[in-house]
Amino acid sequence: MSDGHYRTLRVSADATASEIRDAYRRLARVHHPDRGDAGDDSMAAINEAYRVLGEPSRRAVYDASRRGSAVGGGHPPAGPAVPAPTVSTVPSTPSRYPWKLVVGMAVVGVAIVLIGAALYEPPGPERPDNLLEPGSCVTILANSDAQEVVCSGGVDDRVVEVVVAFDDRCPVGTEAYRDRQGRGTACVSSVR
């Protein structure tokens, strides 16, 4: 191998990373296919050269292979290729679990739950839907119709035990009143 990628980017073999980057950008502006006067092959070669030389670990492998081929007379060594060691510029530190983040998120979650519990107000009693069913509290109107009301929990509350058809009789211990909605007869007992 010769100085192929260095020659393509028109930089020396001891060029810095910023010199390589600047050379790539300069050549890309000139040889880009959108300019119309440059071929795709020259831009492909420039891109490949920058792909290899712009990454420190790839550049180290490339440089090591260049030195090996220069010593060996220009021919690659016989036998299986042994990958060159990669060189990393980032110091290796063991990864750590983000305990501070986990604890912080747990504290925020607990705070939200406690604030929500402190601000929670239970809903008031359900509003009547005017459909009589067993357990509905009612008041008796002047025309003997039963109308659903909110249960007050007092002695005067009347509760629907069962709703029967107009021609059926109410069970013993209940009084028959017409359902205001016309669904039948409400069998009502007093809460004691």
Question: How would you characterize the overall build of this protein?
Answer:
- A 5-stranded mixed barrel has the order 1-2-4-5-3.
- With 192 residues, the protein is of the alpha+beta class.
- A hairpin with a 4-residue loop joins β1 and β2.
- α2 packs antiparallel against α3.
- The chain contains 5 helices and 5 strands.
What structural class should be given to the helix and strand makeup? alpha+beta
In helices, the fraction of residues equals: 25-40%
Individual helix count = 5
Binned strand content: 5-15%
Total count of strands: 5
Please summarize the sheet with the most strands.
Answer: 5 strands, mixed, barrel
Oligomer: single chain
Which key features would you list for this structure?
single chain, alpha+beta, rod-shaped
